[in-house]
């Protein structure tokens, strides 16, 4: 698990059969024809399986990664609460509230916006199950009014032991926020997750959907009433961007779920926006801006500023935009910073894909200075980013475990790198690094579907377990990829 700072510019804060496809991409001032050889359906299926490998708690009978077992069944006991379940964020065995909630929010967005595509791929049921695994935990964590449990596990002790979650004996410390120790970022993101998920289940399970929505309202009220940044998850998930983006994001999802004017009034009268060049677990402005632009195009013309902000995000990323700011590697990859950079790639792909589809639906364009970009350009760029991760890159390798050509086999991940053993076996923590971490052997358990951190800004990559910046996966890297993969699976399938 790694933490990465955010970047805001402008007026904001500073801080396995193959399908042979032919498509067009604009790069460096010319169009070129590119062949992409990917089974997107397979990539989609596997990306969801990875989320199952990240599950904590009592696993269901239909659980697919056979090497995983029940774990952390006493979580919350130290506080006399039930906090069993949820997700481990990355390659460690800690449950962090902020990235967990963001995983659920973005996965829910994919399930809403690309519902038809996921249904066509036969994966909608699995995505809903993945969302519900997260929301069941968030409901437990938010059961008490004006109190939210935000972390289970001691990251310092956890990082001193390289052991699979089924065998861990490290402390399961519980952290919480309340009126006296607020954490607006985590509370607002949790509200966003619950609200977005309520839309997912509105027709599939109405009673559950209502429960999620009612809790989302209460948690949002907590978030905006007791404001403050919570540093308890530092140095791993510190919020460098502040909490205004999460408040805007949560209010936008609550408006999406309810269409109630109280949330639109908050968005227009109280919420703060900013022009940004990234979308991530720490920085949600661009996601909210694109969601609100949809409402602008549907007739809410007083949201015009959000359309301008959404365009600014696109303009700062597109390499052929006169306002381009984001670094693009020689091989064409968005690279914001070393360390789990793939999360920014999949985040970019999701926003470009969704915004491209919104633009197409309303026959609109993005305006970047003296240039205009239509939906096709955005959608092509989203596809280019996903294709890079799947194997169309200078190294001709896949960055998704178990998929494509020469995929990584040394993911920085405890469960995958430690052999399956009796849950009663006691592991010596210092020796665990000798036996399972500092070895050149491939992981004994395939972490199917995990998108690893990826290459550096020069497209270099080392498949080495100790190189966490390049080989550690995260739940949110995958949650951001699933919607795009579903769309690609439908519209670029073999005819």
From TrEMBL:
<keyword id="KW-0119">Carbohydrate metabolism</keyword>
<protein>
    <recommendedName>
        <fullName>Endoglucanase</fullName>
        <ecNumber>3.2.1.4</ecNumber>
    </recommendedName>
</protein>
<feature type="active site">
    <location>
        <position position="412"/>
    </location>
</feature>
<keyword id="KW-0624">Polysaccharide degradation</keyword>
<keyword id="KW-0136">Cellulose degradation</keyword>
<dbReference type="Pfam" id="PF00759">
    <property type="entry name" value="Glyco_hydro_9"/>
</dbReference>
<dbReference type="InterPro" id="IPR012341">
    <property type="entry name" value="6hp_glycosidase-like_sf"/>
</dbReference>
<comment type="similarity">
    <text>Belongs to the glycosyl hydrolase 9 (cellulase E) family.</text>
</comment>
<keyword id="KW-0326">Glycosidase</keyword>
<dbReference type="InterPro" id="IPR018221">
    <property type="entry name" value="Glyco_hydro_9_His_AS"/>
</dbReference>
<feature type="domain" description="Glycoside hydrolase family 9">
    <location>
        <begin position="40"/>
        <end position="485"/>
    </location>
</feature>
<keyword id="KW-0378">Hydrolase</keyword>
<dbReference type="InterPro" id="IPR001701">
    <property type="entry name" value="Glyco_hydro_9"/>
</dbReference>
<dbReference type="InterPro" id="IPR008928">
    <property type="entry name" value="6-hairpin_glycosidase_sf"/>
</dbReference>
